[in-house]
Amino acid sequence: MMRMIHLSAAALLVLLSACTQPALPEDHYYRLGGAAPKAGAGGTLSGIVEVNRFIASGLTASRAIVYTDSVNAREVRAYHYHFWAEPPPIMLQNALVSYLRAANAAPTVVTPDMRVEPDFIVSGKIRRFEQVRGAAGKVNVELELSVKRSRDDKLILLKPYAVSVGTRGATVGEAVTRISQGINAIYAKFLSDIPR
């Protein structure tokens, strides 16, 4: 009888241990960061500048951080546990608003939710926003940015911007740091391209 109880207890322990699963990895969330521009670092727009939400499609529009492999660059994948704190179209819009304000690029820089009549409208499109993993690790950022004058719908500037920044490691944190540097470089070039 005692042997039967011990066997039952052992069987119960084996059954319970089979039901337990290892803990799932923890989710990680990232923000863009970087150096603020110097005041007066580029062109100046006189009036109210409205920065629209960026356009993105596919994986680039989602919060999951996107990556490719240097061996198979055509295959685009997304991390399961590494996310942007906000979707990239909103995050890049907010970063550009902050950048233009810090650079004093215009007297007032707003987003469409302020519901004011802008003098200029800045629009952006995300073409690439990804980490490239492999022996020669890097990040690729490609944006298309434009400035339009509202009163006559005249296109002041329309230009593609692309930057690749090498990474020292394959970590997502390192890629986010380099993506931030790439975004700052693109915004600085965009600001210098805006006619005075």
What topology emerges from the helices and strands here?
Layout: H1 2-19, E1 28-30, E2 48-51, E3 64-69, E4 76-84, H2 88-102, E5 108-110, E6 120-133, E7 138-149, E8 154-166, H3 172-193
Helix pairs in contact: 2-3
Which CATH first-tier class would you pick? Answer: Alpha Beta
Ends apart, CA distance between termini: 94 Å
Q: Which ranges are low-confidence, i.e. pLDDT below 50, for 5 or more consecutive residues?
A: none
Query: Beta-sheet strand percentage?
Result: 25-35%
Describe the structure.
With 196 residues, the protein is of the alpha/beta class. Strands 1, 2, 3, 4, 5, 6, 7 and 8 form an 8-stranded mixed beta sheet that branches. 30% of the residues are buried. A hairpin with a 4-residue loop joins strand 6 and strand 7. It has one domain: 3-Layer(aba) Sandwich (Rossmann fold). The longest helix is centred in the C-terminal third of the chain and has 22 residues. It has 3 helices and 8 strands; from the N terminus they run αββββαββββα.
Short account of what is shown:
This protein is of the alpha/beta class and 196 residues long.
Main traits of this protein?
3 helices, alpha/beta, 8 strands, 28% helix, Rossmann fold, 33% strand, elongated, eight-stranded mixed beta sheet, 196 residues
